[in-house]
Amino acid sequence: MKRKKIIALLLASAMVCSMVSGCGKEEGSTSSSATGESVADSESQSQETSASAEEGETEERELLPDGNTYATGLPIVKDKITIRIARGQNALDSGTDTNEKPIMKLMEEATNIHIEWIDVPSGDGFAEQMSILLTTDMPDAFMGGVGDTDIMRDYDSFVPLNDLMETYAPHIMETYNKTNGEAISTLTYPNGNIYSFMSSVYTQHTSWTIGVQFINKKWLENVNMEIPRTLDEFYEVLKAFKEMDANGNGDPNDEIPLGYCQNNFQARLLQFMGAFGFNDNFRIEDGKVIPTANTDEYRQFLEYYNKLASEGLFDIEGFSQTDQQFMAKAKQGLYGSFYAWTPDTIIDDEELASQYVQLLPMTAPGLEGKETVYGTVNRFMGNINGFVITSACEYPEALVRWYDYMGSSTEMKQTARIGEEGVMWEMRDGKVYELQNQGADFNFQNACYTYGLMQSCPVLLYPDETPVLDEETSPQNYARDCYVTAVEDWILEEGLMPSRIATEEATLELASYETDLLNYISNFTADAIMNGVTDASWEQHLTDLEKYRYSDWIEWKQNYLDGKF
Question: How far apart are CA 8 and CA 13, in angstroms?
């Protein structure tokens, strides 16, 4: 399906939504009709008074003390209001106006609340821009981008949600109650207050790991080589890619054997560490947090990739290039190998994308059997600080009701997550099916971010609401599931830290030095890969790690894992 056709369908959806916004249905229903009535109004029976009012009845509805927000029903406010919300915009989102997303058109029509979006591009500079908003231009709310430390540093800048959640967010509470208290406990800050709503998907097999490595099979055929199984074999393959005109265009100098991008969530440097037995600056084994940045294995990792970089086999522009620049190179077919969600996530050309096949974890010399894949079995994907309301908001009750309405049914959540029903997904027998198979010029993953909110989808999408991985209707995610299954044996059950809020004292103590420490490690790693590592520079590195409190950091991680704070 071509982009223009999709946009036309989305505009048609907005007209349908306005026609049916007064129709009510029973709470919890996930039934879907051809007219989209279940998506247009999925509020509970207690809110049906608004539906009657919209159809011409004059029944009075309760207004809250602010004089404009209704306690129940739709619209949420009597007189239209504008709310400013900052959100992180993924590089795959090609939209120019967040209010053009189907869920936002539906929401404004139903709630009478207009959102002025502050879209902050993800990648380099994101944290700095969010910091500026927090300190000089506070919006009414943040959809992601705010961390525990930001809240603890200034509790008064954020609205406690405990009572508001209980009173004005029945659908969110219904979802949280499925966790038997885990969600509420996870969200509660040390002072006893809740300052955020969760977002994204609770857990999903396709997300047990992040980036998967791929290699161009056609290039392998052109240089008469097989898929490598070890890093030594991989080096020989990359060298052949560089020297033997692997893409077959007559120019032996336009290939980039191994792609990399630190600003791309799937292709960060930590993905490349797995062959050496770790995927970060620590690893967890039998409940113990073990340092990695000061080990012989870490030096071996640096030396291997310095060898690749010095011979032009590794894209050192990856340390600074943007997400968009990385994807542009992939779209041009310049990479022999790279990490991605799936090849067709970032490559629009179906024929080119099909040239890339999965490359299973490889072993480093002397470390056979220690290789790992970044991630965690049964990984929790929820963003704890998915939606945060600030003290700048004049209508916090209305905004809580607004967010709750977006998560009031499976249909609403899916519309918020990836886009319009009938275009991006459909309901069959009470289950969600994504509609990915729409032609070579339709990149489903790009469309999800362009027409939906993806990880910012409201409430918390539970496993029974996640899409069925159907090979016919959703070939991309079906393939992704197969890729994850293929590396499942290398994904550790205790690979990543659990998600929860530490004490204020511990959080602020960590914040006082962690940024400097991680920046130091990142800079040293980049320099070592580009310029090499010597005995002297390595010894200085070990000294500098302690100067930046690496041992304290590891101890903090251990205490956090043990639940000591």
Answer: 9
- What is d(CA 138, CA 244) in angstroms, rounded to the nearest whole number? 55
What is the DSSP-derived secondary structure letter of residue 390? B
Nearest partner of 344 among 224, 476, 245, 470, judged by Cα: 476
What is the model's pLDDT at position 440? 67
According to DSSP, the β-strands at 288-291 and 335-340 are unpaired
Task: Give bridge partners of residue 114 from the DSSP assignment.
Answer: 82
pLDDT of 138 higher than 70: yes
According to DSSP, the residues that pair with 468 across neighbouring strands are 433
Between these two residues, 438 and 135, which has the higher pLDDT value? Answer: 135
Report residue 493 as tokens: 């059950």
- Residue 365 CA: distances (Å) to CA of 258, 270, 370, 374, 545: 19, 19, 11, 20, 26
Task: Let me know: does 498 contact 507? Beta carbons within 8 Å.
Answer: no
With 80 as the cut, is the pLDDT of residue 202 above it? no
Pairing of strands 431-434, 256-258: unpaired
The residues with which 258 forms a beta bridge, in sequence order, are: 314, 337
The residue written with tokens 């908003």 in the block is 133
Element (H, E) at 116: strand 113-121
424: phi then psi, degrees, rounded to nearest 5 = -100, -20
* Dihedral angle, C-alpha 298, 516, 128, 383, nearest 10 °: 60
Handedness of CA 520, 523, 526, 531 (dihedral sign): negative
- Determine the Cα–Cα distance for residues 160 and 190; give it in Å rounded to an integer: 12
pTM of the model: 0.78
Q: Is the peptide bond before 291 cis (omega within 30 degrees of 0)?
A: no
C-beta separation of 343 from 335 below 8 A = no
Residues present in the chain in total:
565
Q: How far is CA 460 from CA 27, 175, 449, 483, in A?
A: 17, 7, 17, 25
Q: What is the DSSP string of 403-472?
A: HHHHTSSHHHHHHHHH--BTTTEEEETTEEEE---S-TT--HHHHHHHHS-GGG-SS-B-GGGSPB--TT
Instruction: Note the pLDDT of residue 455.
Output: 81
User: Are residues 449 and 92 in contact, defined by beta-carbon separation less than 8 angstroms?
Assistant: yes
Q: What is the distance between the alpha carbons of residues 373 and 293, in angstroms, rounded to a whole number?
A: 17
Give the 3-state secondary structure of residue 46. Answer: helix
What gap in Å lies between CA 476 and CA 439, rounded to an integer? 12
Structure tokens at 14: 């907005």
In whole angstroms, give the CA distance from residue 317 to residue 225.
Answer: 27
Above pLDDT 90, what percent of the chain?
A: 68
Helix boundaries (H) for 23-158: 37-40, 48-54, 102-111, 126-136, 148-153
